[in-house]
Prior knowledge:
Layout lengths: L6 H11 L16 H5 L3 E9 L4 E8 L4 E11 L8 E6 L5 E7 L1 E7 L4 E8 L8 E10 L9 H16 L1 H70 L2 E3 L4 E3 L2
Antiparallel strand pairs: 1-8, 2-7, 3-6, 3-8, 4-5, 4-7, 9-10
Amino acid sequence: MAPQLPSCLLVVVLVLVGPASPGPSKDLNPGMTDQDLFWGQDQYDFSVVLHGSGQDCFWHFAHKGETFYLSFQVLWVTGVGHDSHLSVTVNSPSSLLVSTVDDASGQVDFKTEETGFYQMCFNNFHNRFGSMQISLSFGVSYDGEAPGGTKEEQQKEEEEEARQKLNSTLAVIEATSYRVEKHVFHMFRFYNLGRMRRSADSFLQQAAGRYVTGWSAAQSVLILGAGYLQLSFLKRLFISKSDSNLEKTRC
């Protein structure tokens, strides 16, 4: 007869191994589609620093038919012989070139023809030994209504439309609020563009102030040094020398 394991040993083995558990969940939101996760209008505003001959790329999701926009502004540039021009390219999800800009500031607006992630690349190729800070504002806006992902959602939308037809006042209020929301969204876009330009002007003013202060200090030192040298030269003209009989001056 085979020997039997003690019950205490079985308990220890079960504690070490633990109960059987399913693997990690790969889909955290199984009931949500890509349209539920990404659809809508959004906006991102931040600034980055590009080093000499550096490149930085960002990706943003957009559906077909949405309006994709990008605004950028160079805030400051460092280095010798620096150039404030920035090379910007926007590529579609199929790697096709959609737009390109080569300037210190610019805006890109276009209707998306594909659904996917659009690539934005910012290149500091004009400055090999200087860095630059750029301010970015990009996102998407949609003027229509997002299509329903399931039959239940479509049925809910149809019921909502029926309720709106029964009450015209509610429909007018909804249309007006949507129009106001869209206008506020675009006003916020232009406000960010103006803020980026004001920041660039502020950095330029600070740089000009440091330049004027530095040159003024250098010129003051030069003037004081020249005056001291002139005074020393004049004093040397009146230095007296004595010989065996009498004293004779040099001037």
